Amino acid sequence: MFEDSNHHQESLKPKNIGSVVMLLVGLMIHDVSEGISLGLCTTFDDTFQMFMAIFLHKWCEQVCQAICGIREGLSFKQNMAFLVPLCMATPIAQITAFFIIYFTTGSGELPLTALVVQDCFMSFAAGTFIGIMFEEVIAVEMTESNNKKSLIFKLLTFLLGFALISSVSIYEWASNK
Ligand SMILES: [Zn+2]
After folding, report:
1. Can you give the residue range of the structural domain that contains 22?
2. Transmembrane segments in this chain: where (predicted)?
3. pLDDT tens digits, residue range 134-167?
4. Number of compact structural domains in the chain
Protein backbone atom coordinates (compact mmCIF):
# COMPACT_ATOMS: atom_id res chain seq x y z
CA MET A 1 0.00 0.00 0.00
CA PHE A 2 2.66 2.45 1.12
CA GLU A 3 5.00 1.28 -1.56
CA ASP A 4 2.28 1.87 -4.07
CA SER A 5 1.68 5.47 -3.05
CA ASN A 6 5.44 6.07 -3.01
CA HIS A 7 5.68 4.76 -6.50
CA HIS A 8 2.84 7.06 -7.52
CA GLN A 9 4.67 10.04 -5.99
CA GLU A 10 7.79 9.06 -7.90
CA SER A 11 5.99 9.07 -11.22
CA LEU A 12 4.77 12.62 -10.56
CA LYS A 13 8.34 13.89 -10.32
CA PRO A 14 8.83 16.44 -13.08
CA LYS A 15 10.96 15.28 -15.98
CA ASN A 16 12.38 18.62 -16.90
CA ILE A 17 11.44 21.41 -14.51
CA GLY A 18 13.89 23.75 -16.30
CA SER A 19 11.70 24.18 -19.34
CA VAL A 20 8.66 24.93 -17.14
CA VAL A 21 10.64 27.58 -15.24
CA MET A 22 12.00 29.08 -18.47
CA LEU A 23 8.50 29.40 -19.90
CA LEU A 24 7.30 31.00 -16.66
CA VAL A 25 10.18 33.52 -16.70
CA GLY A 26 9.48 34.40 -20.34
CA LEU A 27 5.75 34.79 -19.78
CA MET A 28 6.35 36.78 -16.58
CA ILE A 29 8.53 39.30 -18.44
CA HIS A 30 5.81 39.56 -21.08
CA ASP A 31 3.01 39.89 -18.50
CA VAL A 32 4.81 42.58 -16.49
CA SER A 33 5.45 44.53 -19.73
CA GLU A 34 1.82 44.44 -20.80
CA GLY A 35 0.71 45.27 -17.24
CA ILE A 36 2.91 48.37 -17.22
CA SER A 37 1.60 49.52 -20.60
CA LEU A 38 -1.98 49.01 -19.40
CA GLY A 39 -1.27 50.90 -16.16
CA LEU A 40 0.11 53.83 -18.16
CA CYS A 41 -3.09 54.22 -20.22
CA THR A 42 -4.93 57.38 -19.20
CA THR A 43 -7.80 57.67 -21.66
CA PHE A 44 -10.77 55.33 -21.75
CA ASP A 45 -10.22 54.36 -25.40
CA ASP A 46 -6.56 53.47 -24.86
CA THR A 47 -7.34 51.52 -21.72
CA PHE A 48 -10.19 49.65 -23.36
CA GLN A 49 -8.17 48.71 -26.44
CA MET A 50 -5.27 47.55 -24.30
CA PHE A 51 -7.62 45.66 -22.01
CA MET A 52 -9.25 43.87 -24.95
CA ALA A 53 -5.85 42.96 -26.41
CA ILE A 54 -4.82 41.40 -23.09
CA PHE A 55 -8.24 39.85 -22.44
CA LEU A 56 -8.20 38.07 -25.82
CA HIS A 57 -4.91 36.25 -25.32
CA LYS A 58 -4.51 35.94 -21.55
CA TRP A 59 -6.13 32.49 -21.44
CA CYS A 60 -3.68 31.37 -24.10
CA GLU A 61 -0.68 32.21 -21.88
CA GLN A 62 -2.15 30.31 -18.94
CA VAL A 63 -3.01 27.32 -21.12
CA CYS A 64 0.55 27.26 -22.54
CA GLN A 65 2.03 27.30 -19.06
CA ALA A 66 -0.40 24.67 -17.77
CA ILE A 67 0.18 22.34 -20.74
CA CYS A 68 3.95 22.74 -20.39
CA GLY A 69 3.65 21.74 -16.71
CA ILE A 70 1.45 18.75 -17.52
CA ARG A 71 3.80 17.64 -20.30
CA GLU A 72 6.75 17.73 -17.91
CA GLY A 73 4.83 15.64 -15.39
CA LEU A 74 3.99 18.26 -12.77
CA SER A 75 1.23 17.50 -10.30
CA PHE A 76 -1.81 19.78 -10.09
CA LYS A 77 -0.42 21.52 -7.00
CA GLN A 78 3.03 21.97 -8.53
CA ASN A 79 1.48 23.37 -11.69
CA MET A 80 -0.63 25.78 -9.63
CA ALA A 81 2.53 27.15 -8.03
CA PHE A 82 3.51 28.31 -11.53
CA LEU A 83 0.06 29.44 -12.65
CA VAL A 84 -0.89 31.64 -9.69
CA PRO A 85 2.14 33.99 -9.95
CA LEU A 86 1.50 34.16 -13.69
CA CYS A 87 -2.09 35.28 -13.04
CA MET A 88 -0.93 37.98 -10.63
CA ALA A 89 1.90 39.46 -12.73
CA THR A 90 -0.17 41.66 -15.08
CA PRO A 91 -2.57 43.14 -12.46
CA ILE A 92 0.27 43.88 -10.01
CA ALA A 93 2.39 45.53 -12.73
CA GLN A 94 -0.66 47.51 -13.87
CA ILE A 95 -1.51 48.77 -10.38
CA THR A 96 2.13 49.68 -9.70
CA ALA A 97 2.47 51.63 -12.96
CA PHE A 98 -0.87 53.34 -12.34
CA PHE A 99 0.09 54.50 -8.83
CA ILE A 100 3.54 55.68 -9.94
CA ILE A 101 1.93 57.87 -12.61
CA TYR A 102 -0.88 58.98 -10.31
CA PHE A 103 1.43 60.09 -7.50
CA THR A 104 4.22 61.55 -9.64
CA THR A 105 2.06 63.59 -12.01
CA GLY A 106 -1.00 64.15 -9.85
CA SER A 107 -3.06 65.16 -12.85
CA GLY A 108 -3.14 61.79 -14.57
CA GLU A 109 -1.76 63.56 -17.64
CA LEU A 110 1.15 61.54 -18.97
CA PRO A 111 4.48 63.30 -19.51
CA LEU A 112 6.25 62.55 -22.80
CA THR A 113 8.77 60.23 -21.13
CA ALA A 114 5.95 58.07 -19.76
CA LEU A 115 4.46 57.80 -23.27
CA VAL A 116 7.84 56.66 -24.58
CA VAL A 117 8.13 54.17 -21.71
CA GLN A 118 4.62 52.91 -22.49
CA ASP A 119 5.44 52.40 -26.16
CA CYS A 120 8.65 50.58 -25.26
CA PHE A 121 6.88 48.21 -22.89
CA MET A 122 4.07 47.58 -25.37
CA SER A 123 6.53 46.67 -28.13
CA PHE A 124 8.52 44.61 -25.64
CA ALA A 125 5.36 42.74 -24.61
CA ALA A 126 4.57 42.01 -28.27
CA GLY A 127 8.13 40.89 -29.01
CA THR A 128 8.37 38.59 -26.00
CA PHE A 129 5.02 37.03 -26.87
CA ILE A 130 6.06 36.30 -30.44
CA GLY A 131 9.37 34.89 -29.18
CA ILE A 132 7.72 32.62 -26.63
CA MET A 133 5.13 31.41 -29.12
CA PHE A 134 7.75 30.41 -31.68
CA GLU A 135 10.40 29.04 -29.34
CA GLU A 136 8.44 27.49 -26.51
CA VAL A 137 5.15 26.55 -28.10
CA ILE A 138 5.31 26.09 -31.86
CA ALA A 139 8.82 24.60 -31.92
CA VAL A 140 7.99 22.17 -29.10
CA GLU A 141 4.58 21.21 -30.47
CA MET A 142 5.69 20.74 -34.05
CA THR A 143 8.76 18.61 -33.39
CA GLU A 144 7.66 16.41 -30.52
CA SER A 145 4.81 14.95 -32.47
CA ASN A 146 6.01 12.15 -34.74
CA ASN A 147 2.59 11.41 -36.10
CA LYS A 148 2.21 13.01 -39.52
CA LYS A 149 -1.57 13.39 -39.23
CA SER A 150 -1.43 15.25 -35.93
CA LEU A 151 1.39 17.43 -37.26
CA ILE A 152 -0.75 18.50 -40.23
CA PHE A 153 -3.71 19.04 -37.91
CA LYS A 154 -1.61 21.25 -35.62
CA LEU A 155 -0.24 23.20 -38.56
CA LEU A 156 -3.73 23.79 -39.96
CA THR A 157 -5.05 24.88 -36.55
CA PHE A 158 -2.10 27.22 -36.20
CA LEU A 159 -2.81 28.78 -39.60
CA LEU A 160 -6.52 29.00 -38.79
CA GLY A 161 -5.74 30.90 -35.57
CA PHE A 162 -3.43 33.24 -37.46
CA ALA A 163 -6.06 33.83 -40.15
CA LEU A 164 -8.74 34.52 -37.55
CA ILE A 165 -6.73 37.17 -35.72
CA SER A 166 -5.53 38.67 -39.01
CA SER A 167 -9.09 38.97 -40.29
CA VAL A 168 -10.11 40.76 -37.08
CA SER A 169 -7.27 43.24 -37.66
CA ILE A 170 -8.29 43.74 -41.30
CA TYR A 171 -11.89 44.29 -40.22
CA GLU A 172 -10.76 46.86 -37.63
CA TRP A 173 -8.59 48.63 -40.17
CA ALA A 174 -11.41 48.66 -42.76
CA SER A 175 -14.03 49.94 -40.32
CA ASN A 176 -11.74 52.75 -39.14
CA LYS A 177 -11.20 54.01 -42.67
ZN1 LIG B 1 0.01 38.69 -22.65
Report:
1. 2-123
2. 80-103, 115-139, 151-171
3. 887 888 878 766 688 888 888 899 899 889 888 9
4. 1
How far is the centre of ligand 1, averaged over its atoms, from the C-alpha of 111 (Å)? Answer: 25
Radius of gyration of the chain (CA): 20
DSSP string, 159-172: HHHHHHHHHHHHHH
Question: Could you tell me the distance, in angstroms and rounded to a whole number, from the CA of residue 129 to the centre of ligand 1?
Answer: 7
- Nearest-5° angle of CA 152, CA 158, CA 161? 140
Amino acid at 16: N
Residue 160 belongs to a domain: no
Expressed in angstroms and rounded, the spacing between residue 53 Cα and the centre of ligand 1 is 8
Q: What is the Å distance from ligand 1's center to 98 Cα?
A: 18
Residue 130 counted as domain residue: no
The Å distance, Cα 33 to ligand 1 centre, comes to 8
| Structure confidence by residue, pLDDT tens digits, 40-89 | 888 888 889 889 889 988 998 999 999 999 988 899 999 999 999 999 99
Instruction: Look at residue 168 and tell me if it is in a domain.
Output: no
Residue 43, Cβ neighbours under 10 Å: how many? 10
The reply to whether 91 falls in a domain is yes
Q: How far apart are CA 25 and CA 17, in angstroms?
A: 12
Kindly give the distance from the C-alpha atom of residue 106 to the centroid of ligand 1, in angstroms, as a whole number.
29
Centre of ligand 1 from the C-alpha of residue 115, in Å: 20
